[in-house]
Amino acid sequence: MTRLPPPSVSLHYHPFNAEPPRSALIASYITPVDFFYKRNHGPIPVVDDIERLHSLILVLLPCLHFDIVHCRNNLSVYSTNMAEQILCFDSRMLPKYNVTATLQCAGNRRTAMSKVKTVKGVGWDVSAIGNGVWGGAKLADVLELVGISKLTSSTKSGGKHVEFVSIDKCKEENGGPYKASIPLSRATNPDADVLVAYEMNGEPLNRDHGYPLRVVVPGVIGARSVKWLDCINIIAEESQGFFMQKDYKMFSPSVNWDNIDWSTSRPQMDFPVQSAICSLEDVTAIKPGKVKVSGYAASGGGRGIDRVDVSVDGGKTWVEASRYQKPGVHYISDDMNGDKWAWVLFDVTVDVPRSTEIVVKAVDSAANVQPENVQEIWNLRGILNTSWHRVQVRMLERIMPRSLMALYTVLKLSIKQVPAQHLSSIWLCRDSEASFTGLESDCAFKFTCYNFTGCTVFGGFFEGSQIKPDLTIYVSNDLARLLAGSTNERSFFS
Ligand SMILES: Nc1nc2c(c(=O)[nH]1)N[C@H]1C(S)=C(S)[C@@H](COP(=O)(O)O)O[C@H]1N2
Ligand SMILES: [Mo]
User: Domain named Moybdenum cofactor oxidoreductase dimerisation: which ranges (predicted)?
Assistant: First the structure.
């Protein structure tokens, strides 16, 4: 008898990469830190030399007019021995901003892209995304401290990009630190809300998310929001780091590892319009009737979500889902009170009479829409899979009383606690991929067994009035063995 593990953050590879289960992801508008995806290219650094790391040094290229001494003087406010004070430096020295922004890894939904043709990279489901409240100073204010005024796209000496350098050690950088850059025009634009953040959801950043300081670039792929920030450089060209030049770039489906020329594509910044269903797994067994379809939609560049369409016939006809950021408050994309950098949650209740494909697509405020198929946006690194998100639902079948008794004859061998009279009905799904999700709420006993009469038996006992709702037993391998040895297969399926 195997008890399934409770929903938890799933680990991928070393270095530490994790994403929450779909249902946990959309349980709240603000993603709790524990359920926020973690994406790391090297080991998470242990920041013991707190003073060094907090001494955020802006290294201005010698070609610029600011000299290092001038720079250090201006920034001496960052250096202090006390961690507490350092974490508050912005609130004392620079205004503190709280920006609600969705961070999305460019590799979100990569696993689905890999199914078309293998791609390189961490295999993410749909949860390499999260919505946080980031607290910190605006990068535009920090840069102003060293004499770079707001809304500057080029300094006199030719600085056009702002590079963020971390302290972690990445094998892609030959053991050097992770780094990335954004255009100076974005960095110095106060409305772009780029933060040097020290807080996440009202708490100091934790180690996983970049303690003590990280950059947050709203509306842009997560790769540019550098964690464990060590220094900032003003440079003439984009950062030459691996993750800017040899990764996180979009290519056509025809580009492969033999003909790729990295220089032909620019480092990806804004992410395109995206949405995903999170209330259903890839294949979910459900009873015929109403199904709540919910999930998230988000677009890059500060574009809002104008519509979320859901189809229960694989994309032939569509219904519009309701959208919200604050629970119960209808979302309007250009609303001044809305969070312009944040995702929108959606839900709609649909009638599902038969096994089918449920699809979602979102439309952003520039009328951009997600591509229908993954094939046409396939790229060798497997980034930005924003194709319509599709899930399968498999109808459960109610089995006949005679079969029920036959099944019970076998089942009671392993589940002695269930008196026969409580088994008023049994539902089955003959699909080896189907998940339990649709059964969780009203199913007192459930089981899966594989390789039984060539198909998977997947079902649950419902409506046993005297069965306590929290009494849940999962049966898999043991029962499979019992059933496989049974001679009652025919009557079971009759
Ligand atoms: N220093 C550093 N910063 C980094 C990374 C990294 O590996 N090292 N990963 C980037 C990528 S690809 C993403 S998607 C986000 C993930 O942020 P999170 O782990 O806080 O969710 O951090 C970015 N910043
Ligand atoms: Mo990422």
Answer: 267-394
**Cβ count within 10 A of residue 284:** 23
Residues 6+ apart with CB under 8 A from 26: 278, 279, 294, 295, 296, 345
pLDDT 10s digits, 56-86? 444 333 222 222 222 332 332 232 222 333 3
- Non-local (6+) Cβ contacts of 9 within 8 A are 18, 19, 20, 34, 35
pLDDT tens, residue by residue, 312-342? 999 999 999 999 999 889 999 989 999 999 9
Ligand 1, atom 16: closest residue by C-alpha: 39
Q: Is 167 in the pocket of ligand 1 (CB under 6 A)?
A: no
Residue ranges and CATH numbers for the domains of the chain are 10-264 (3.90.420.10), 274-395 (2.60.40.650), 397-493 (no CATH)
Res 213: pLDDT: 87
The arithmetic mean of pLDDT across residues 217-228, rounded, is: 97
CA of 275 to the centre of ligand 1 (A): 21
Is residue 199 a contact partner of residue 134, using CB atoms and an 8 Å limit? yes
Q: What is the CA 490 to chain-centroid distance, rounded?
A: 45
| 247: pLDDT strictly greater than 80 | yes
Q: How far is CA 490 from CA 403, 404, 487, in A?
A: 9, 12, 8
Cis peptide before 218 (omega within 30 of 0): no
Assess whether the C-beta atom of 461 lies below 6 angstroms from ligand 1. Answer: no
Residue 217: CB within 6 Å of ligand 1? Answer: no
C-alpha–C-alpha distance, residues 300 and 370, integer Å: 13
For the segment 123-150, what is each residue's pLDDT rounded down to a tens digit? 999 999 999 999 998 999 988 877 899 9
Cβ atoms within 10 A of the Cβ of 318, count?
16
Say how far apart CA 456 and CA 42 lie, in whole Å.
41
- Residue where the block lists tokens 């040899």: 246
